Every structure is written in structure tokens, then in C-alpha cells.
Amino acid sequence: MTAREHRRLLVTGRVQGVGFRPFVLRTATALGVDGAVRNDGAGVVIDAVGVGAVLDRFVRLLRDAPPAPIVVDAVRTVSVTEARPPQLGFHIVASALTTTVTQVCAPDFAPCPECLAELVGTGRRAGFAHIACSACGPRHAITRALPFDRERTTMGGFPVCAECAREYGDPADRRYHAQLIACPACGPRLAFTTMDATPLTGAETALAQCLERIASGGIVAVKGVGGFLLVCDATRAEVVADLRRRKRRPLKPLACLMPDVAAVRAHCHVADDERRALESSAAPIVLLGVRPDGRLPLDQLAPGLDVLGVMLPASPLLYLLARGAAGPLVATSANHAGSLSPMRSSPTTGRCWSHRTTRSCGSPPRRGCASWSVVGVDWRRPVPMPRSSRRRRRSSRSVRT
Ligand SMILES: [Zn+2]
Ligand SMILES: [Zn+2]
To answer: Residue 299 Cα, ligand 2 centroid: separation in angstroms?
Structure first.
């Protein structure tokens, strides 16, 4: 019989908060590799026990075949300093809290197609504004410390219900070991309040009230992943002008939020590379050429320009708002020009918010985090589109929110 080896592997890259440990477990189980996987401050540590050739294949699969949004930079074999207790099967075990943290936090991911389908379906998460899974949802915006585990995120204060616990423990479920698993029974709730946080309605009708306020020409501050956005009807020039006055931004281009590419096409030209950018998990603002037959007040939204900044929803809450609204919405940072504090109260504003962000609008990136997901349009910091699209369409570029 061929001797079994014990290897300890350190995997680095975007491997925390992206479903990597369940992927490791499934791969190990399929190959008959015994051992365990855990997060630590440097990445993911795997103890793998098996025949040498099988372990080689295991490492190749980890390196070359992980599903998005996992990104494996390296799989290194490190020395095993202690005798590993004999153990059969493969397990996900508690994270090791190391003093040195070199792992970077994953960015926030826009809702994936499966979660959007659930959101508008008839299941128990229908309309649940905090739907997420192993592949999508906030990461950086809600993480207090690494390694990435629920207790070190703002979701730590929301114990899971029995049904979520069952899904969390089921290797066949797409929320297996998803740290942000939640549902209407156990997750955060929406609130619709005045700017001084006095509730205007109950959680059940918060979204409807918020949409009603927008439909009647109001401006709503939406606290979502990463900070506050000011949201209003983009089709009404007088409402957009009012927003500009309150923000003291007479000329800055304002980005529009729309639910999906089909909605965008009613107002803008969308090339294939622009569609891919819009639908990417970073949900960037993409500058698009405006259709001559569109109904948007471009002189108010983007004075002096012939392109419009458009984004698809970066969170389920924004998706529910965009889908529930009669047309495109303006969605822009809730900061005054030059200010770092959210815009304050006015008689026509309300706010729709949740409990899921660790830092306020305008706060700087935390040390050790790869991305900065502050909500706001910074037109001075373009993120270039892929080379091919720049060659074909010089005016097309995207910016991060
Ligand atoms: Zn998802
Ligand atoms: Zn639940």
C-alpha cells in the first residue's frame, strides 16, 4: 500500500469570504483527501493527508479550477511543526487568530444572478434586502477584522435561525459555510426614518414608503454597503436640480441607477464590453452614450456632456429600489462638496437604511484592505476599461463607486 503523506498548504490570494473553504472541502472529499481547512491571518491553511499523487492533483485543482470570485495567487507547502492527530474525512475548522495579518479583505460584490432570482422569487428570501451567498454580498464594507468570519463582521450581531443554520451546514447548499447567511427571520431589517432616525413606518413597509417618497419627488438617503447614497427620480429635471442645490454641486455629473441592462438600453447605447462592465461584480459606474430618443434630462444629469454615468445595483437594497421605481434613479454620494459628513436633514428627505456597514461615507481605507468601496462618484479617478474597449470606443470608461 502506498504511504500517505501529510502536507500543510498555505493558500494566498482572494481566498477569504469568497467560498474558498467549501470549495476546498468539496475538492478534498471528491479526491478522498483527509484533513482540514481553516482561515488565518495570512490566507487559508490546509492540512491534507493522502497519497502523494493525489495530493499533487489536489493542489493543481485548488490552483487552477476555483470558481469565481475566488482568486488563488499561490499554493505553498509549509512545514508541519506539530504531529497532526489522526483524523478521517475532511473538515472546515475554526480560524486561527494570528498576530500577523497579511491577508487582504475581499471587496464587496454586487448580488449574483442566483441571489437576484431569489430576491424576486417566491421563496423565503423574496424581497429580503440583505440576501447574499458565498459568491456575493458585502465583504470589505462590513469586516471589522480578519480572518473573515461572521463574528468579525457586522453580521456577528445577528444569530442565524434554524433554517439558515441547516443551509450553512449542508455541503450541497450554495450557502454552505456562507458567513453572511441570513433571512427575514434572523437577518437585519430595513428602516425608513427621518434624518434624525425617527421611524416613519415599520420594517415591512419601509421599502414601499421609500419608493413612494421617491415617486412623489422626494430625495432619500439610502444607507447601504459602504455609506449613504442620495437617491431621487432621475427623469424629473426639477427634482435633480433640487438635489444639486442641496448638495451644492451645480455641475458635477450625477450617476443613474437602473435595475438591469435591459432598462439601461432604453436610455443609452450599450456595447458588449460596456455590458460586461455594468454586470461585473464591482458594479462600477460606466459612462455610456445617450440615445437621442431617451427621456432623461441630460442637461441636469451631466451638464455639458454627451455621456451618462450608469450603474447597476451594487446591493440587493439598491436592486429593490431600482426595480420598484418607475424609471432611472439618481444615486450619488451623500456628501456636500468638500465635506465628509452625510447631508443633513431637510423636510423632503427621508432615509432608508440597514445595519450593515462598518464605516461611514468618506472614511479612508483600512490598513490591510485591498479595496475602498466608498459610495460616491469620483470622476477624477477613472478605472480604465480593458484595452480592446478603449481602442474601439474612446469615450467609454468606468469609475469605481
Ligand atoms: Zn449570491
Ligand atoms: Zn435565517
So the answer is: 46
